[in-house]
Structures are given as C-alpha cells and as structure tokens.
C-alpha cells in the first residue's frame, strides 16, 4: 500500500470526545489487513537496524501495533500504563494536560541502562504524552530513546515540543489537524 492509500483509511470523527475536536480514528486502518500490515512493516523497516532492544507502547492505542513490531523485530514489549494498573513496583511521571494533569507509570524493572528503546503511540498531537513517556523511560537510565507515532497532527507543534528529547522522531503519516 502507499502512504496516501493508508492516509485515506483514517476516519475523521468530528466533535469526539468533546465538541471542537476532530478525532483521527485509526480503527479503519486496523480493520483493513493491508493497512494493518503496512503499519507494522513500515515501523520495522525504519528501526530494524538501529539496535532496538525494547519496544514501549503507551496505553491504550499504543498497545495495538507496538507488540506486533516488537515480535517482528525479535525484542520484548513493555507497556506504559495509567496509574494503578501495573502490579509490581513502578516509577511514575505526572504531566500537565490542557485540563488538569495526568500520570503514567512503567514497571521499574522493565528497562535497564543497556536498553535502546523505541516508544510507539498512535498519534502525536501536542506531544505532551510522548514527552512524559520519554521522561519516564529515561528515569530507568536507558541508553537511547527513539520515538514513533503512526500519525503526526500538523499545526500542534508536537515535534517542536519533543525537540532534543529523543534520538529521532519519526511518524508514518502527517495529517492536518482539521483535514
Ligand atoms: P498529545 O499528548 O497532545 O500529543 O496527545 C496524544 C494522545 O492523545 C495520543 O495518545 C492520541 O491517541 C490522543 N489524541 C490526541 N489528539 C487526538 C486526535 N485528534 N484524534 C485522536 N487521538 C488523539
């Protein structure tokens, strides 16, 4: 599939979850077998020779593709979750959202200083959640952090917000926020 064909599969849902937000729904890529495979394969192609040792997914839509990528690359998958979901000892990062704040957690023993980590999420918007995820994995002293999202929403400056925080930021598709 071409990137344009996959982009065309993204469904725009106006006013979800609140009025004024145009939600980019990727379930319409996921239910297409070629689209689903394309997402996995494009990420693997980009990162397979970079010495990645762990793929980290951000709850919840980052959990869909990240494990498939990890399996294909022959490395483990590590979840970043909302508070009080992970059973063993965790480390946390709390960050500011548009309304209030949010906390994310990772198992303390999930990564080690030798790890080269790829963090994946479905969408890069303002970059707030990805920045927090980078801070979280860095708390475990990893060697390198790469960042990947399926979709980058243009005009929200997420890429600028993450500048200097990771080795590299790579998104498979760029979409206008109101496109
Ligand atoms: P941000 O922290 O602003 O970069 O937001 C990224 C997170 O919010 C991702 O986990 C996305 O799943 C979700 N998100 C933000 N904006 C949208 C949108 N317009 N459509 C779908 N998901 C979004």
Describe the structure.
The protein has helices at 3-7, 27-30, 33-47, 62-73, 128-139, 158-161, and strands at residues 11-14, 22-25, 54-58, 76-80, 90-96, 101-107, 116-124, 144-154, 168-176. Strand 3 (54-58), helix 4 and strand 4 form a beta-alpha-beta unit. It has 6 helices and 9 strands. It starts with a helix and ends with a strand. It is α/β, with parallel strands linked by helices. The model has no long low-confidence stretch (mean pLDDT 97). A 5-stranded parallel β-sheet has the order 4-3-7-8-9, with helices on both faces. The chain has a two-stranded antiparallel sheet with strand order 1-2. It binds adenosine monophosphate (AMP).
């Amino acid at each position: 599939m071409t990137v344009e064909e996959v982009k065309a599969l993204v469904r725009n849902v106006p006013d979800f979850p609140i009025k004024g937000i145009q939600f980019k729904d990727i379930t319409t890529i996921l239910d297409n077998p070629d689209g689903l495979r394309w997402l996995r394969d494009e990420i693997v192609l980009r990162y397979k020779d970079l010495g990645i040792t762990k793929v980290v997914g951000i709850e919840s839509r980052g959990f869909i593709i990240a494990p498939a990528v990890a399996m294909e690359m022959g490395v483990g998958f590590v979840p970043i979750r909302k508070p009080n979901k992970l059973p063993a000892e965790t480390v946390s990062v709390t960050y500011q959202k548009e309304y209030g704040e949010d906390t994310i957690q990772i198992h303390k023993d999930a990564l080690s200083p030798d790890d080269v980590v790829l963090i994946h999420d479905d969408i890069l918007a303002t970059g707030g959640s990805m920045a927090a995820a980078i801070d979280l994995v860095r708390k475990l002293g990893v060697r390198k952090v790469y960042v990947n999202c399926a979709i980058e929403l243009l005009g929200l400056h997420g890429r600028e917000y993450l500048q200097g925080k990771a080795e590299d930021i790579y998104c498979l598709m760029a979409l206008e926020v109101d496109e």
